[in-house]
Design goal:
single chain; alpha/beta; four-stranded mixed β-sheet; 4 helices; about 25% helix; about 35% strand
């Protein structure tokens, strides 16, 4: 099976606030806003992020009962430091500092207003020694 598209859903008591967070900090545009359900995407991307109200009849009771999620959404951005600064300026607490990993990522973790973990990533050149030791050469 080959999925035609991909989507993820954040279940929250505050759909509008969570949707506004993604629109403000990750430049996602709202497609549908029914109050209890909001979709966001960037341009013509073949993925979308949905925000759904906890307790809505379309959400299984077991999901609505969860107080926290183990999911981490990764967002690849052009400038991780710029996004971090914008979040901090907006009063959002970063969960980690920005770090540059030897495997080719500069990133940090933050949570959205619903508590969903986000890994905000900028792709950078990996350390040549790490590449030599860890990636097969053709």
């Amino acid at each position: 099976m080959q999925p035609a598209a991909f989507g993820a859903t954040v279940v929250t008591d505050r759909p509008s606030e969570v949707a506004a967070f993604y629109a403000q900090y990750f430049d996602l545009q709202i497609g549908i806003d029914l109050g209890w359900f909001v979709t966001l995407r960037r341009g013509t991307a073949d993925w979308e992020l949905a925000i759904c109200e906890r307790g809505h009849p379309t959400v299984p009771a077991a999901v609505s009962a969860l107080s926290e999620t183990g999911c981490v959404f990764g967002f690849v951005v052009d400038d991780v430091d710029k996004v971090a600064a914008s979040l901090v300026e907006g009063g959002v607490r970063l969960e980690t500092e920005q770090v540059t990993e030897v495997f080719g990522q500069r990133h940090f973790f933050v949570r959205d207003p619903a508590g969903t973990w986000l890994d905000v990533i900028q792709l950078v050149e990996p350390d040549p020694e790490w590449v030599a030791a860890n990636l097969p050469t053709s």
